[in-house]
Amino acid sequence: MPDSPIRKLVPLADKAKEKGKKVFHLNIGQPDLPTPQNAIDAIRNIDRKILEYSPSEGIKSFREKLAAYYHTFNIDVTADDIIITTGGSEAVTFAFLACLDPGDEIIVPEPAYANYTAFAILAGAVIKSIPSKIDEGFALPPVAEFEKLISPRTKGIMICNPNNPTGYLYNRSEMNQIRDLIKKYDLYLFSDEVYREFCYTGAPYISAFHLKGIEQNVVLIDSVSKRYSECGIRIGALITKNKALKKNVMKFCQARLSPPLIGQIAAEASLDNNKEYMHDIYDEYVERRKFLVDGLNRINGVYSPIPMGAFYTVARLPIDDSDKFCAWLLSDFEYENQTIFMAPATGFYTTPGYGKDEVRIAYVLKKEDLATSLKILEEALKVYPGSKVRQIAAATQE
Amino acid sequence: MPDSPIRKLVPLADKAKEKGKKVFHLNIGQPDLPTPQNAIDAIRNIDRKILEYSPSEGIKSFREKLAAYYHTFNIDVTADDIIITTGGSEAVTFAFLACLDPGDEIIVPEPAYANYTAFAILAGAVIKSIPSKIDEGFALPPVAEFEKLISPRTKGIMICNPNNPTGYLYNRSEMNQIRDLIKKYDLYLFSDEVYREFCYTGAPYISAFHLKGIEQNVVLIDSVSKRYSECGIRIGALITKNKALKKNVMKFCQARLSPPLIGQIAAEASLDNNKEYMHDIYDEYVERRKFLVDGLNRINGVYSPIPMGAFYTVARLPIDDSDKFCAWLLSDFEYENQTIFMAPATGFYTTPGYGKDEVRIAYVLKKEDLATSLKILEEALKVYPGSKVRQIAAATQE
User: Fold this and answer.
1) pLDDT confidence tier of residue A389, bands split at 50, 70 and 90
2) CATH number at residue B334
3) From the record, what ranges are coiled-coil (chains A, B) (predicted)?
4) Helix (H/G/I), strand (E/B), else coil: B383
5) Are B219 and B320 members of one domain?
6) Is A257 in the B-facing interface, judged by CB distances under 8 Å?
7) Distance to chain B for A45, nearest Cα, Å
8) pLDDT, tens digit (0-9, with 9 covering 90-100), for B70-100
9) Both B287 and B251 in a single domain?
10) Alpha carbon distance A264, A236 (integer Å)
11) Is residue B307 pLDDT above 60, yes or no?
């Protein structure tokens, strides 16, 4: 079981805070934007005497509203296809447990959300990864690379679209290539689409459920955490039109009894005002994205592709080792008594050596905080012992 | 993965309700008693703009209050020994995942909480069970039976005390025997003590943490679901003084990010008023227990031992097959347009053949509902095709 690259440095951050240092959290996708007022009101108006179990598959009225929400994205599912889970984390875990036997393999383009590996290990499954490249903007690696990895133990492909951590959004051609692979080898397509509301370029969001002919193979992963700034309520969903699979997933759901009741009430209320809420949120992220990525690319030796969706970017830094640098920022560095907490990208790759000069940065903080964070990063790179900024500067001057 | 014996008949119950039948839920430990007003108030007064992630190990102030609560039971733990989980279910799951490798074995006296098996399967572990007997009041089977099952793969013993489903409360001598086994073979002792507040006979509640010399081996499982009628908020705890184990459990906690935020707020508020709340609740269960067990034993051919704790009893019925009988009650029987939903005890045993004439009954409904339920059971046994009541009656008349 690997440590979480997002959370493993938390003790260092806690120590920095104890010393009175201000720490900007760029490491974790916890937006600073307010949760929808509808959700807060639903909680504050709760009118129950007993906080009882909900159904193992989740509250019916909530599942019905979710189905209607998916219809607005041309995702044709019913309330019966939806199983409410304790966060997207549980949805991925149950998907792997229900679909994979110990020793089975799934193929994942990387960098990828680190906890997929953790959940695969939990299911006894093996992740086979294909690195995508920062210089190609983290586009889908060639299908030939996928086919090389397919073995009799291969049971599925896992994608995240729009992508965490890269912000990449798969285009029609890439999605069709994935569809053809899924069909040809009869694999599961695990598609984590929790960032669907965050697509910034006008390019279409193509859901796995938009792909014709593989409807029975798709396992959609969703969560309200990110879109409604409701990370704490732990509400996600697993969506499948495959009845046999649903039956298996339900066994795991029944074993853990039920998803959180109050979270479901909050999430259901959030859906009532989805369009208006997302409108404001969206504009804010468009601003932050431009501000962060422009700022990063202005720093000597730093490169970030422009993310098309989600609210992360993977940036290349002029450093020896992202794990060391991120730890050093928390333990040894300060700029005007402030520092930044970033996620080393090594944790998002399983291919050894990858991510050593990359970090994941979440642009979930307001512009003012992002501005300070960029300044801190720039100053840190000037003095970090493993920094290559001086070499770059020297080379430029020659 | 087995079906949940508690929830697998839910579709039949739903159908019965759709037909307008009233169904009394004796199958599930969902108390009808009100959640503490403190908890409801804490939710209604929530004053947050963002429902954000909580720490992976749970909110510190909640863990500190929990530690103080355990001290009132002479359980000497600190906030640092406590990890908040998404219900007791997740605590058991993480305990198994962190302590057991695939193929490792744990010994469990049965009948046992059915989902232990599900969580063991999830961890790739194997449950070796020893049946306890209804005619012995479900007392701990002889230690010699445990020793027979110990192999090089045995890593732990799992107990539930007070017991779900039997209501048995282990005495000092039994707990000392368990302690000696744990010590002799250096095993983990997984001790599910979520019903500690429900001990009815004056006999002491002996926690696994009361046993001297095995402090590093104990993994305590707790949950607020049952004691505060808060099953829906999904808040439990895993408690260990073993630092290496805690580190491993934390990896799973970080992968699933955090336990539910609002549930923690409700649970923390419940602790503020624990004593007063439990006082009233306790008296109510004492009444219900006496009423139910007396009523069961008055029905021809039915036998229930008197449970010493928790709020379940396993009763022997004059029937051919508890799975068939419980399904028949929902599908085919009604008494004044009402029926009862019980959990077949077969699901609480892994030893084949056990539990076929036993059911688990939760006395979580008010006395009036229990009275109706008893009447329904009595009438059902008169007409159920697989009933042995007529044979018993005939034998008595001869």
Assistant:
1) confident
2) 3.90.1150.10
3) none
4) helix
5) no
6) yes
7) 6
8) 999 999 999 999 999 999 999 999 999 999 9
9) no
10) 9
11) yes
Q: How far apart are CA B92 and CA B94, in angstroms?
A: 6
Summarised one tens digit per residue, pLDDT across range A138-194 is 999 999 999 999 999 999 999 999 999 999 999 999 999 999 999 999 999 999 999
Please indicate, yes or no, if residue A5 is contained in any of the structural domains: no
- B148 to chain A nearest CA, in Å? 29
Q: Which of A231, A248, A272 is the last residue of a domain?
A: A272
Residues B199 and B306 occupy one common structural domain: no
- The one-letter code for the residue type at B134 is I
Q: What is the pLDDT of residues A34-82, one digit of tens each?
A: 999 999 999 999 999 999 999 999 999 999 999 999 999 999 999 999 9
Report CA Rg, chain A.
21
- A254 chain-B contacts, CB cut-off 8 A: 3-4, 6-8
Residue A173 lies in a domain: yes
Residue span of the structural domain in which B239 resides: 46-272
Are residues B146 and B158 part of one domain?
yes
Whether residue A192 sits in one domain with residue A121: yes
Statement to judge: residues A258 and A116 lie in one domain: yes
Q: Band the pLDDT of B397: cuts 50, 70, 90.
A: low
Q: Is B223 on the interface with A (CB under 8 A)?
A: no
Residues of chain A contacting B46 with CB distance shorter than 8 Å: 40, 43-44
Q: What percent of chain B has pLDDT over 90?
A: 92
Chain A residues with CB under 8 Å of B55 CB are 10
CB B65 within 8 A of CB B38: no
> Which residues numbered 85-104 in A keep a CB inside 8 Å of some CB on B?
86-87, 89-90, 93, 97, 102
B182/chain A closest Cα distance in angstroms: 26
Interface confidence, given as ipTM, is 0.92
> Rounded to whole angstroms, how far apart are CA atoms B292 and A5?
53
User: Does residue B264 share a domain with residue B172?
Assistant: yes
* Closest among A343, A346, A334, A336 to A380, alpha carbons compared: A334
Interchain contact, A255 vs B124, CB within 8 Å: no
Q: What pLDDT, on a 0 to 100 scale, did the predictor assign at position A3?
A: 76
Residues of A in contact with B224 (CB under 8 A): none
Q: Nearest C-alpha of chain B: how many angstroms from A51?
A: 5
Q: Is A87 in contact with B45 (Cβ distance < 8 A)? A: no
